[in-house]
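User: Here's a chain of 335 residues. Predict its fold as tokens.
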Amino acid sequence: MLDVDGRAGGGQQVRTALSLAAVEGRSIRVENVRAERPDPGLKAQHVAAIEAVAAATEATVEGAEAGGDAFTFEPTAPPGGEFAVDVGTAGSATLVCDALLPLAVVLEEPLTVRVRGGTDVKWSPPADYLLHAKLPFLRGLDVDADVSVERRGFYPAGGGTLSLTVRPSTVAGLRLRERGPVRGLSARAVAAESLESASVAERMADAVADRTAVPTETTATYAETASPGAVLTLVADCGDARAGFGVLGERGVPSESVAEEAVEAFRGWRATGAPVDEHLGDQLLPWVALAGGAVRLPRVTDHVRTNAAVIRAFGYELEIAEGNEGAVASAPLRE
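Assistant: Prediction complete.
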């Protein structure tokens, strides 16, 4: 059984360890989960990710409960099947999907999962980031996966639902050391129906177009939700490369300020010259290890360092080379 120390990182270490254990059919014990965080231990969304990957691999699991600091995971079957997972809170449904996507490289049959929880919540990628930034990027690597948003879920009630289907895939190596010009920008604003009278979604979307010279396609929609909320997601299209930036609306914060924050995040990324945004760069590390190749990152964050440590614990030759122009994550190409 492989021991993984999760003290220095967050939930990404848990998700990466689960994904690689499922891909390799390897038993793991993750200890000191998020021990150095102000709120250590497993959260509901981490437990849901464990339950999801366990269901896909018929794994035996011990210790996976909210607040727990360690768990064991022992897969017994090749990944696949159809099932549902409920986070039980407004915890991130998109990050549960994140743990399941790498299983594409070993699937023998499609995997379909309905995840109930928060679709657009803090500290996680919004649903439109997954739909329009990450998944299109992965499809460029020949990953065959789709997700649909059946219902939006904001904090604190959650109650949103995503439906994810992942199919057997032979993944191409990454070759993204440079980025082409930004071809266009999409701004997708979604708000609860209770906010329609204040035109919250239209104001967020229109404010983006007013603040950037890049050609921008805007959409503004409203959804029936259990809790009021709003989210704005920008996606930059650079051909083979993509970057996304999600900002949640908050009570008392003008829609225009939400748009300004998202545009500033886009501008900051654009200045780096990196082909992917900071969060996608972190999430791509398992794919670099599994398929090989290289991708340039905007910078090396603590998330990158701790995620890379988990990947190396599985024996993958993942290198993070830092320089004046950012950093490059690379691994030998797979045959």
